[in-house]
Amino acid sequence: MAELTYRAAVAAGIAQEMDRDPSVVMIGEDIGAAGGVFKLTEGLFGRFGPERVRDTPISEQAIVGAAMGAAMTGLRPIAELMFSDFFAVTWDMVANQIAKSRYMTNGQVSIPLVLRTANGGGLRFGAQHSQSIENWAMAIPGLKVVAPSTPADVMGLMAAAIRDNDPVIFCEHKALLAIKGEVPTGEQFIPLGKAATVRPGSDCTVVAIAAMVPRALAAAERLQAEDGINAEVIDLRTLVPLDAQAILESVARTSRLFTVEENPRLCGWGAEIVSLVADEGFYSLDAPLVRITTPHIPLPSAAVLEDAAMPSVDRIADTIRRRLEAAR
Amino acid sequence: MAELTYRAAVAAGIAQEMDRDPSVVMIGEDIGAAGGVFKLTEGLFGRFGPERVRDTPISEQAIVGAAMGAAMTGLRPIAELMFSDFFAVTWDMVANQIAKSRYMTNGQVSIPLVLRTANGGGLRFGAQHSQSIENWAMAIPGLKVVAPSTPADVMGLMAAAIRDNDPVIFCEHKALLAIKGEVPTGEQFIPLGKAATVRPGSDCTVVAIAAMVPRALAAAERLQAEDGINAEVIDLRTLVPLDAQAILESVARTSRLFTVEENPRLCGWGAEIVSLVADEGFYSLDAPLVRITTPHIPLPSAAVLEDAAMPSVDRIADTIRRRLEAAR
Amino acid sequence: MSTQRPTAAAPALETRLAIYRTMAECRQFEARAQELFFEGLVRGTTHLGIGQEAVAAGVAAAMRTDDYTFCTYRGHNHTLARGVPMAPIFAELFGRGTGLLGGKGGSMHLTSVEHGVMGSYAIIGAHLPIALGAAWSAQYRKSGQVALCFFGDGTTNIGAFHEALNMAAVWKAPVVFVCENNQYMEYTPIGSVTAVPRPAADRASAYGLEPIVVDGNDPDAVYAIARTAIDRARAGDGPSLIEALTYRHGGHSRADPGKYRPDEEVKAWLARDPLPMYRARLLAEGASEVALAAIDDETRGSVAEAEQEARSAPEPSLDVLETQVWSDGGSAWRN
Amino acid sequence: MSTQRPTAAAPALETRLAIYRTMAECRQFEARAQELFFEGLVRGTTHLGIGQEAVAAGVAAAMRTDDYTFCTYRGHNHTLARGVPMAPIFAELFGRGTGLLGGKGGSMHLTSVEHGVMGSYAIIGAHLPIALGAAWSAQYRKSGQVALCFFGDGTTNIGAFHEALNMAAVWKAPVVFVCENNQYMEYTPIGSVTAVPRPAADRASAYGLEPIVVDGNDPDAVYAIARTAIDRARAGDGPSLIEALTYRHGGHSRADPGKYRPDEEVKAWLARDPLPMYRARLLAEGASEVALAAIDDETRGSVAEAEQEARSAPEPSLDVLETQVWSDGGSAWRN
Ligand SMILES: Cc1ncc(C[n+]2csc(CCOP(=O)(O)OP(=O)(O)O)c2C)c(N)n1
Ligand SMILES: Cc1ncc(C[n+]2csc(CCOP(=O)(O)OP(=O)(O)O)c2C)c(N)n1
Ligand SMILES: [Mg+2]
Ligand SMILES: [Mg+2]
């Protein structure tokens, strides 16, 4: 066991795989000698050299397109999008080319790549540098979507993402970079598609990812302490593949579902989870299905406004308490 | 009353507004003398001239960006994206700039523009020319989303979209271009945000848009004839603003909801509708909420495969019949 | 036309006959495909390269078998030129189960990895960065492969063009960008939407590259220019950008009659039809009428045979609908 | 430095003093903003243009009051140069309710439509097409307005740059693109990721434009070049692309110390600090020390006053959280 920051776990996860497989290469803006603007690739340039850790111009279409071309021809590229908002600049490459080419060619083409990105809000960066875009990717068939909440998950899921033979969108949450956590010693690997029940409970199921996991956990502790409500918290870890069974199994026990999403309200990943349960888990439900989300607005930059926009521990706890009471 | 094709209604709707307001201008690829590759702008160049109907290079970022800049400074531009799949090429302009600038500037900037696009499948064009992207837009706060199913709605909603002071994504469905319908004489205007109950019914609520509306209607007729099931069919017409009350009111009567979506399964607009009802309409429900969608795959090009992928009248009717029976 | 006259001697007769055969195959295949589109057998859309065969054929003859081709929706010629058999291409256009892509991709996405055809791309500009990526991969793997990337004049105005050219130049990637300037982006004359007269060549200097313009209806000239560029790329000297001047005889796609083009312009280009021009030149420069006629006839035979094979192929089985989204062959997104 | 030496005579002393005042305001405002960032009062991020003031000030002096400014996240200078008062800018950086954007946008999105500042854009390249659109609008409305669009060297490698330049040239739009080449894209020297030595000027010919390079630390030179380009745009002769060579004294953003830059390079550029250089020139060419000192002092006063005003401003009310998504002032997406 060693204690690592979430930030350091990113570089450690990449380093583990670059050590293991010479076909793993990285490209992105300022990722080389500078170690990335969030210092997420620190040390990799020194260790693996400029051929394997390449700086690029500000050319997101070329970065992601080049990663695709390299993935089709024998490499396992990792491309960094500095902020996840910049996926929009290269969305054609992601949604139309990378996601669809295997299917369109009936499997002739494999695209084993990872698109890493600093995702999410909380840093007062404003609407164009704070988005949570997991739901953008989830809506596109052909993309896998990973959004870890702990250093250990970052390392283990990074290994799985890099070894995966399909394209993976790997969301590193900006607001979690400084958190610390235990990472087991030795090679890390956590398969994609396995949720973690991070707090067992019996009164309701709370589903979250990334920065919403610690908030959901804190809310659950508060509910336990203040109201005797015993909430189960599930960290999905990956949205695609989705551990639907873990959710359905939990809701079968608790009969109540809450999702906690950072993205704006409409068509978020929470809507997908709710819809799944509203269909397949309907008969085990005894209360409305509730999504706790950022309102359907762009994220504001001022601290008080941003804090009010994103689901907070307060809002999560209050919503769960209120809705459980209402359903009594 | 006059009979118009859906295709002709597009040009007629635009012409009505260009006649009315000299600040309405159009840009796009091949929209001028050529009248557009789908002949959706035929006649406009001749009538309004090259200053108001401008051909562009293949530069979707510049097209949409220029429309934004013009909208901020006194014009009401309409930009055509030839296929809705190409939104991906200019998604930054749409999702990050156009959608967010009013909010980020605290209302200093208004962006009254319409982004028109040929949307949807059924023409055997394959995965990159057949997507239904209403849910992409719905997921972004700051965008209004219109997806009409009849010539009259095309004209009336086009007028509303052009006169609206906010950005509107206007989805013209490729597979509907040739259909005909009555359009009342005189100036057309249908406010955004009003659903149409296109078939009243009492046994279940079926919510659809665009090309799924005629299919849902045909399925409803078949269910009535073959099974005595009386389905209510709601054509949402616009996703944002959403006529949530129309849906909730209908489900309050029918207790059962089906959505019919052309987009791939995950995070579609149907998930949003289902989630809304699973929360606010929960207590009037007596059966699972069911989404009928394209599977979560890219659309294939071969006729038999494409037909099997998209929700068909058969599949809609069969699903409703089967799920209503199972819930009995 | 101020094009670069290749200084190298014409290629060997054998090479030239191979080029001629490729051109004949492209022409006959596409002419038939167009008829079959009007018969309703070819579904969806097609974009024909009739008139532009010399570019695909000339470049392909200069390639190594393991080099990569990246082309567009107008990619039948480039696909055929790499030796992909006709029957699965026809079958793909017909939407049959034996199609090159199993019926999943259609005319716009022809791909045959085993022949080095890494895809036909239907969204303008996307494949330039992707081709650069394949070149980067070859460079990293030290495989000596070169990526050839074909695109149209209209494509030079989209952002991805700019990004790919700059990054390829900075990385000295072994990629050759070939712009087929057929004078039109769909229905719009390229000159009316482009700030410079030569949409590709006049941009080369923006990437530190030499401007190269070649007569795209002269396969020998194309071959020579391509050879130089490919050798240069393989030697590690970086990318090239070639502008080949040519013309599509027909419309942009499907049933487009191409009426937006002045009659004299069409007439002038038809008079420079690369097929008869090259045939005449080969005859004049030592090929026998017998040999050329044999190529013409054999090609007619292959096209007819391929069409029959594709016609009698079954529709795709619905079992494949949800396969090949993922590398495990399936499409499951949940447990 | 092979820059264009403006042939026009230096601007009138009054104009030059106004330029000097703008530069002083920019410098002092930003120097204080940086201190306040380290004090934790400025939240989120800031990107300072210390060292680059001569570009914003020189261009602004050449603009008509109804011309448009489009700039970047590094936009304090350009915003101040159009006369936007300091207090609401400070308040915006502090995230206060009286902020220029009500606290919704932050440092990267400064906008003041009433001063013609149509926005600061934080995603590289996006505002070039948007500025072109404003120019197109002015052209259509025959308003005689010109759009000025500022961006960095690194921005020349993104697709939107290419699309905007081409379309602006084809449309002869009244837009002037000003590339502030401060030698770095974030932490990476621009030369290491760009295929040509002059990232903007060496691309001008790709859009049929003249290459224009100017000493971006010389406000008189910038003014003269801008004047020519703006007049040209206003006269209907189309866009220009200006490359202004300059340097940011500090890091890219926030707490970046800029250590990736060679010491001698930094030293050489600090020796060419536009503020003292211009001050010295004005003194030498007829301005009085008294007048200049008054400007310095008044500016110090304004900055201090604005800071105090912003400091004492309240946090935004939570009532505004869900306002101004739509033109009706609200954010309702449903009934
Ligand atoms: C991003 C994008 N915009 C528009 C289109 C529609 N489109 C298909 S082909 C074409 C014209 C392309 O012209 P050019 O590059 O000259 O190639 P050509 O068709 O002449 O071979 C256009 C605009 C597209 N496929 N992708
Ligand atoms: C599309 C996009 N990619 C990356 C970034 C991150 N980023 C912000 S500033 C910057 C460097 C820009 O360099 P330059 O254009 O030279 O402007 P400067 O910061 O030097 O003023 C980068 C890469 C971004 N904001 N947008
Ligand atoms: Mg062309
Ligand atoms: Mg710079």
List the helices and strands and how they pair.
The complex is a heterotetramer, with two copies of chain A (328 residues) and two copies of chain C (335 residues).
Chain A: E1 2-5, H1 6-20, E2 24-28, H2 44-48, E3 53-55, H3 60-71, E4 76-81, H4 91-98, H5 101-104, E5 114-119, H6 134-138, E6 144-146, H7 151-163, E7 168-173, E8 180-183, E9 196-199, E10 204-208, H8 212-227, E11 231-235, E12 238-240, H9 244-254, E13 257-264, H10 269-280, E14 290-294, H11 303-309, H12 313-326
Helix pairs in contact in A: 1-7, 3-4, 8-12, 9-10
Chain C: H1 13-38, H2 53-61, E1 68-72, H3 76-81, H4 86-94, E2 117-121, H5 127-141, E3 147-152, H6 159-171, E4 175-181, E5 184-185, E6 188-189, E7 212-215, H7 219-234, E8 240-245, H8 263-270, H9 274-284, H10 289-311
Parallel strand pairs in C: 1-2, 1-3, 3-4, 4-8, 7-8
Antiparallel strand pairs in C: 5-6
Helix pairs in contact in C: 1-2, 1-9, 1-10, 2-7, 4-10, 5-6
Bound molecules: thiamine diphosphate (2 copies) and magnesium ion (2 copies).
Q: Please trace the helix and strand order of chain C, writing H or E for each element.
A: HHEHHEHEHEEEEHEHHH
- Spatial order of the strands forming the largest sheet of chain C: 2-1-3-4-8-7
Order of strands, main sheet of chain A, comes to 3-2-4-5-7-6-12
CATH fold name of the largest domain in chain A: Rossmann fold
Bound molecules: thiamine diphosphate, magnesium ion
DSSP E strands of chain A, number: 14
CATH architecture of the largest domain in chain A: 3-Layer(aba) Sandwich
* Oligomeric description of these chains: heterotetramer
Termini distance of chain C? 62 Å
Helix content of chain A: 25-40%
Helix content of chain C: 40-55%
Strand content of chain C: 5-15%
Radius of gyration of chain C: 19 Å
Tell me about the biggest sheet of chain A?
7 strands, mixed
Tell me the Rg of chain A in angstroms: 19 Å
Coarse structural class of chain A:
alpha/beta
Instruction: Indicate the proportion of strand residues of chain A.
Output: 15-25%
